[in-house]
User: Fold this.
Amino acid sequence: MRIVVALGGNVLLHRGERPDAAVQQANVERAVIALAPLAKDNELVITHANGPQIGLLAMESVSDPALSAPYPLDILGAQTQGMIGSLLARSLRGALPGRQVAALVTHTLVRTHDPAFQRPTEFVGQVYPRDVAHALARKRGWHVSRDTAGWRRVVPSPAPEGIVEADTVHALLDSGALVVCCGGGGVPVTSDRVTGELTGVEAVVDKDLTAAYLAEELKADFLLILTDVPNVYTDFGTPRQRPLLDVTPAQLLDRAGPAGPMRPKAEAAARFVDRTGALAAIGALDAAYAIVHGTSGTLVRPQLVFE
Assistant:
């Protein structure tokens, strides 16, 4: 079975943890322990989040006096792919002796005129007091918005329209390799219609939607979205909270709620199942093997004709 796994940001860096290298290494090793049993009997492609990591690099870049201007987000995204990809590849090689592992920096095509460029919504980087945030916005040409703890920079999150290295990922899978790719949604780029030249853009592509797009491109049998909760819930955080166990895409989108951190995961899972007729699931990292085998998580399946 061909499985695309999307590791959430809170899998690689837990809430409240410092983004130290040793902390992230330990969390990657925990993730690999959970994924190794699946990798032994299946073709595996692993994608991952990069929110805390790109935020850290963006903060350092803004503060570096040696730079005349901060590094753009596409370059910072590529840096996070290299860093996290290396950690995952090394741990996977250790857990799966003899298995070929490739960590690939990948680029995600977006449309120049995607409406998201007019409505930046994705938080990036550190929290600032209001006055500091607005001063930086004027100086850097940023958009800023209020977050739960203060003010932060917001950037566009355009939809993925293609993965430049999809054929390369195919070839690596066909050779028997386990592939780490599309980290952080991939490096966002536009393509010149005439020359095909790629140009990086100041944006962050949603990692879960990119994972769904990748899974569709690879004709995957299963999209597995892993996070820090065991299920998608209705009425999450209230006394009426109930886990969703087995749902169709329409039921998932209806019951998961209109907003919140679970919404992009629900939309990605629903999109993949609707477009392919294959299976998707959302659940906890430590239960990865159990989720694929139907004993944990929220399973998303095609709607049967007689339902």
Summary: The CA atoms of residues 276 and 292 lie 17 Å apart. The chain has a mean pLDDT of 92. The two ends are 27 Å apart (CA to CA).
